[in-house]
Amino acid sequence: MTDLVPVKRALISLSDKSGLDRLAEGLARRGVELVSTGGTAAKLRELGSDVRDISDLTGFPEMMDGRVKTLHPKVHGGLLGVRDNPEHAAAMEEHAIAPIDLVVVNLYPFEATVARGADRDEIIENIDIGGPSMVRSAAKNHAHVAIVTDPADYDELLAELDANDGATSYEFRKRLAAKAYALTAAYDATISQWFAFADQRERFPETWTRASRLLMPLRYGENPHQKAALYEPIGPHAPGIAQAKQIQGKELSYNNLNDANAALELVAEFRDGPPTVVIVKHANPCGVASADTLLDAWNAALACDSVSAFGASSLPIARSTRRPRKRSHKSSLKSSSLLMPTRTPGRSSPGRRTSAFCWPVDCLIPGGRAARSP
User: Is the pLDDT of residue 341 over 60?
Assistant: First the structure.
């Protein structure tokens, strides 16, 4: 295995074609041969690029409404062949398999298709087969092949080629491979959840595969010496504290979010009632009150236990259509952060007084230990 692998041939197959113009221009500037599929090949020609159809590479036409186009030994042999293995090299030469040095692929928009309410047949057609297969093959052989799955990485790819005289480094390819496997894992997890919950209407599937995305590192975990991070699910999910917007205050800790989550779950119980305020300290309510105005609810909640309320780390409040009266005095609640809801839970409509959220955070990881998930 060599560190630098020159990129002489690239296979491009995209659902999301954003950034394709600058990618094609950058690869053409380096003399890279472009091989592409269906709509991507048409778009490349529209952009003025020289491109070779995948059917020309494989000797077989795209068929079955595009279901079969890249599942072919001349594609996967070109991706999986170990270039410095004499037996692999001999097999590639014997069967006229050309090496592919770069794969640029993103997948059919399965999640977006489900989200817009498509029927079952359309959802099934948006399960990508060839794309994940190419991604996995290229990622497995990252010693020799670079796999790019995110348009946000096009500029970095072109910079890598410029820095290495048209080649990619092993560290770069290895990093892309890790990202590629994360993509296919999340993609399959979303599909399996759709089959289990939406299609089969299972309440407790035998296997529940989930994928999550890092939202932010936290100041610390349950204790100051511990590390923590906040993740949210990839794919459809109910809104929760993870989707709240921090208005002011320092970087949040695990305990801040845990308290906020507890408060949001509690205040959601009052979403059909009058304005309500919940004050939480160390995941325990120390004040809950409903009133005609938020100010009155605030004062009543604070009066429940004003001592424990001091230093409370969060104060989620019920949303109200009424304008609260001007505050007449300063409160002794010393909040380290204020989280503003961006969506409302459950059933909501214009003019309804509702709380912020009713779903817990997806996953808080303090010191390597996962907290509860919904």
Answer: no
